[in-house]
Amino acid sequence: MSRRSRRPRAAAPDGAPGGARCTVTVCRGCCCGTPAKVPHLDHAAQLADLRSALAGVAMIRRTDCLDACERANVIVVQPSPEGRRAGGRPVWLGQVNDPGAAADITAWVEAGGPGLADPPGVLDLYAFQPSRRVRNEFED
Hints:
This protein is of the alpha+beta class and 140 residues long. Helix content is 26%, strand content 15%. The chain is built from 4 helices and 5 strands. A 5-stranded mixed β-sheet has the order 2-1-3-4-5. The longest helix has 12 residues, at 99-110.
């Protein structure tokens, strides 16, 4: 990934700065988001459902590849600045291939996300640590 200069973020619909919300990054590249890798899931609907459910609550980003293809579909939940100050760190979730998992992610983010709310226990089954290289590239 390339390094980008930081731009001021736009205000959220509720007037809070855009950075005051969690960011949910959804991988939709070579493996994640493709029927060849995960045939039983409507990938476009999953992304649309997350965007709809978290509108005004979190920023949803689609990315081409998070380089954790063996765990397709991958979603990363980054804490809000308040969550980061409270000790929250990005949480990597893999094999998010059913509506229940997406609903659990949505409920957690609505409650505050990393650092501000405990994730539903079932998300422990999806959580993983990517390689240091991948983590560093993602956070840059």
